[in-house]
Amino acid sequence: MEKILERVNHILEALPYITKYSGKTIVIKYGGAAMIKEELKSSFAEDIVLLKYVGINPVIVHGGGPEINSFLDKLNVKSEFIHGHRVTDKPTLEVVEMVLTGKINKQIVSGIQAKDGKAVGISGRDGNLAKAKIQKLKINGKSEEIDIGFVGEITNIDPSIIITLQKEGFIPVISPVAEDAKGNSLNINADTMAGKIAESLKAEKLVLLTDTPGILIKDKLVTGLNKEKVTKYIESGEISGGMIPKVNCCLDAIDSGVKRTHIIDGRIPHSLLIEIFTDEGIGSLIE
To answer: Which candidate, 102, 18, 10, places its Cα nearest to that of 62?
Structure first.
């Protein structure tokens, strides 16, 4: 009986959050280990379906770096990185779009539908969702720019197709590929795509799934952050490396009307539900 009551208490703990977020949109960037390990892929799909069934509107933007690397190797297409950014020439772009939109996207859709959800897979090219221009890489913020190929910087998001899918009860699953003004494909950073889509939808939350517990300061997880605190940590060097683009993505989203942003550990099963529906949460909140 105690175990049953404990389960009931967990459900009751979630009730205020279900009430608060019902009818709201949550944009989730899906990537890292959560996309690779079968157990985590299954728990992620369950989380998404449950969110939809309690009245929340999840929108998924996914990455796919490891799978892209694997396909490039199989096809003997060399891939170069400059300061952590993949140089995307025409052959590389063709593989990126094929893997992201043709393979990974449909696998995520199938995973959600296997849990009795209704999902539709699209890319940023569908319905004029995402327009972009060639991005030039600036080194350490300096004026020197490096050409990294068909990598895009988003210039406009038209969320009409997402809103239409939501109205019909579907869960949008989006691959981070956009079009330029001439109709050419451009590869987009998935965190950036998720952030811009969250901004366009004025989402309640933007959640980034990562392979870290969240933001670590002196090896301790920190949460309840705001722009002032994050800026201080960046200036002191306590937030550095690959975490800087993620927190900047969160800050940009907040500046553009997203209520709350979260960086959470996608390596933990059901991390989405833990962060959204429990008092303690699991990762770092920036608001």
So the answer is: 102
Any idea which residue has 């892929």 for tokens?
41
Per-residue model confidence (pLDDT) at position 135: 84
Q: Are 146 and 137 in contact (CB under 8 A)?
A: yes
Q: How many domains does the chain have?
A: 1
**What gap in Å lies between CA 49 and CA 58, rounded to an integer?**
9
Question: Could you report the per-residue pLDDT of 118-131, keeping only the tens digit for each?
Answer: 999 999 999 999 99
In angstroms, the first-to-last Cα distance of the chain is: 40
Residue 137, beta-bridge partner list: 146
The DSSP annotation for 103-157 comes to IIHHHHHHHHHHTT--EEEEETTGGG-EEEEEEEEEGGG-S-EEEEEEEEEEEEE
Rounded Cα distance, 265 and 272, in Å: 9
Burial class (CB in 10 A: 0-12, 13-18, 19+), 38: exposed
Supply the pTM of this predicted model.
0.93
**Cβ contact 173:28 at 8 Å:** no
Domain that holds residue 31: 2-286
Sign of the alpha-carbon dihedral angle for 39, 43, 49, 52: negative
What tokens does 163 get?
């809103």
Output the domain CATH number for residue 181. Answer: 3.40.1160.10
Which residues, given as ranges, of the chain have pLDDT below 50?
Answer: none
pLDDT value of residue 91: 87
Burial class (CB in 10 A: 0-12, 13-18, 19+), 12: exposed
DSSP code string of 202-256: T-SEEEEEESSSSEEETTEEE-SB-HHHHHHHHHHTSS-TTHHHHHHHHHHHHHT
Q: DSSP 3-state assignment of 266? A: coil
